[in-house]
Amino acid sequence: MTTSTHELQDLLDNNKRWAAETEAQEPGFFSRLLQQQTPQYLWIGCADSRVPANELVDLLPGDLFVHRNVANVVVHSDLNCLSVMQFAVDHLKVRHIIVVGHSNCGGVKAALLDMRVGLVENWIRHVQDVRHMHSDWLATVAESRRVDALCELNVLEQARNACHTTVVQDAWARGQEVVVHGWVYGLHNGLLEDLSITAGSAAEVDPAYRRALTKVKTRFAPAA
What we know:
This is Carbonic anhydrase. The chain is an alpha/beta fold.
């Protein structure tokens, strides 16, 4: 059946089938889910439709708290993202915050190439800040790999930003276990890669960032 502009019956039918299959595989799933959500993970990822958070890590609804925006940006002025983080950390008591970028990200590409893409240009200025910060090194990366290099740099910077938020800093100060991670997803192979920026305390942030940055630069270094 072809979905018209005004009718989305395909999606509603898909939902009914999914709900029935989920309940058949795990009887009582939805009634239990209704009572509480106790995710251990907060996923901060890109809004790209090719990067579905739960599916990538094979987790059911209720297991992963998710926030998504263009180019997986974490900035201190974004009250939307900060509110999600605070609810996840203070109320849901998540133990892990994972900032996840992906290869060939359109937002990152636009930031790298100064593309005119409308209102979102103002948002990806945050990614352009990352580009400017690492411009000398990015110039040494092969042009064909430069977008992906900036994608990974952007994950490092946004993960570091997450560590510096008042939400995470306050959690660490009161002894709450919260670990921040930075990952990248390969659209070409469906695999997630840990970029090694992993910090569970304020003292671990800078060493983790330096370690991860060295690994990114080594991976994208010109062939000898």
